[in-house]
Amino acid sequence: MSKHLVRDLESLQRQILVMAGSVEESIYKSIQALQEHDKAIAQEVIAGDNKIDELDNVVTEECLKLLALHQPVAKDLRRIVTVFMIATDLERMGDLAADIAERAITLAAPNTIPIPNKLPRMTDLTTSMVRQSLDSFVNLDSKQARRVIRLDDEVDRFNDEIIDELMGRMKTSPSMIEPSLSLFSAVRHLERIADHATNIAEDVLYLVDGEIVRHRHQAIGDD
C-alpha cells in the first residue's frame, strides 16, 4: 500500500468518526427531548441536521476521490466501500433523529401523553446498538457486529409491544389519538435507527470477513 493511500485512508477514518459522533449526539438529544418534553433541545437537533448532511457529503466525496486516485483492491477497496455505506446509514440516522425531535416538539406540552414504560428500555437498547456497531467498525470486531445484528429482534419486539399499547390507548380514549400518533411515529423512527445500526454491523462483517449478510440474518451464528 502506498504511503499516500495510507494517509488518505486515515483521513477518511477520521472523517467518518466525526460524522458518527455528531449522529450519536443527535440521537441522544432527540430522545432526551422526547422524554423530557424539551423543545429547546429538540430544536437544536433539527438545526444540527444540516451539519450531518454536510459531513455526509464530505465523506462521500472523499470515498469517490480515493477510488479514482488509487484504484484500490482487496481489503482497501472493501474499507472504502464500507465507509461509503456506513455514511449513508449515519446520514439516515441523523434524519430520523431530527424526525423524533419534531415529534418531541409536538408532544412538549406537559402531560400530553404518558411515555410507555417500555420506551426507555427500547431507547437504551437502540442507543447501545448504535454505539456497539460503531465500536465494531473501529475495532474491526466481527463478533461484536454479530451481537448487534442479533439485538435487532429485541428492538423489534419492544416496538411491537409499545405500538400495541398506543393502539389500545387510542381505542379507549379518543382524546389520546393525536398525541398517540405522534408518539407512534417517534417509536417507529427509533426502531428504524436500530435497523441502520444493524446495517452498519453488517457492513463491518463485509469489511472484516468479506461476508455479505444483508437479508440473511438467519445465517448469523453466535460465534
Explain what this protein looks like in three dimensions.
With 223 residues, this protein is mainly alpha-helical. The protein is 83% helix and 0% strand. The chain is built from 6 helices and no strands. Helix 1 (3-36) packs parallel to helix 3 (74-106), helix 1 (3-36) packs antiparallel against helix 4 and helix 4 (118-139) runs parallel beside helix 6 (177-209).
Outline of this structure?
With 223 residues, this protein is mainly alpha-helical.
Protein topology:
Layout: H1 3-36, H2 39-70, H3 74-106, H4 118-139, H5 142-172, H6 177-209
Helix pairs in contact: 1-2, 1-3, 1-4, 2-3, 3-6, 4-5, 4-6, 5-6
Segments where pLDDT lies below 50 for 5+ residues? none
Report the β-strand fraction as a percent range.
Answer: under 5%
Radius of gyration based on Cα positions: 19 Å
Listing every helix as H and every strand as E from the N terminus to the C terminus, the arrangement reads HHHHHH
Tell me roughly what share of residues is in helical segments: over 70%
Structural class: mainly alpha
* Secondary structure tally, helices: 6
Gross morphology is elongated
Distance between the termini: 31 Å
Give the biggest sheet.
none
